[in-house]
Amino acid sequence: MGVKKPKEFTADMIHRWMGYGVDMRSHLPKETKMILEELHSRNYRLGLATNRWEDPTPLLDRDSILQLFDAVEYSRVPGYKKPSPFMLIEAASRMGVNPARCAYVGDFVSIDIDAAKRAGMKPYLLTCHSHSHMEQIPPEVVVVERVMDLLDLFP
Questions:
Q1: Residues 83, 22: Cα–Cα separation, whole Å
Q2: Residue 19: what pLDDT?
Q3: Which helix (DSSP H) or strand (DSSP E) does residue 103 occupy?
Q4: For residue range 4-21, what is the model confidence (pLDDT) as tens digits?
Q5: Which has the closest alpha carbon to 71: 43, 44, 90, 98?
């Protein structure tokens, strides 16, 4: 392989960063907002634990859902990003809830599911974004194929 030209390198890096969720332009799907609002109206306490290293509250505020969350944690401390359970336990602590009484919904087996299990939370895996690594899903994980299905799982 040859050395990439600056424009190719830049395009490659932008693609990689966006793959890590750094694209601040993305917007929350209306369906997801509606589901969060409904779960909140059912008196579920909602927390967010994300591997973003920048504060996600401006995005949550922009999408008018910040008020739905009782705790927002992000990986601003090196070594504490998922699959470490730190952020999940911290979010539960901020909400005053025992982690064993929490469910954690994520979309990566090796990151989210491992973090939930390490935190002692019930893991739920959203597969609507990707069906890769399905063979790696532990039997205790609840698989959720559509975000809308969360409303049936949390009546």
A1: 18
A2: 52
A3: strand 103-106
A4: 566 666 666 555 555 555
A5: 90
- Over residues 32-86, the pLDDT tens digits come to 999 999 999 999 999 999 998 889 999 999 999 999 999 999 987 777 899 999 9
Whether the CB-CB separation of 69 and 60 falls below 8 Å is answered with yes
105 CB-side CA count, 13 A:
22
**What domain range is 101 assigned to?**
28-153
The values of phi and psi at residue 66, to 5°, are -55, -40
Whole-angstrom distance, CA of residue 56 vs CA of residue 77: 14
5 within a domain of the structure (yes/no): no
Residue pointed to by tokens 């690594």: 133
Burial class (CB in 10 A: 0-12, 13-18, 19+), 136: exposed
CATH number assigned to the domain comprising residue 42: 3.40.50.1000
Q: How many structural domains compose the chain?
A: 1
Which among 140, 78, 79, 135 is positioned nearest to 104, based on CA atoms? Answer: 140
Tokens of 57: 């509250």
* Distance between CA atoms of residues 47 and 92, nearest Å: 8
Question: By the 8 A CB rule, do 114 and 87 touch?
Answer: no
Whole-model pTM: value is 0.76
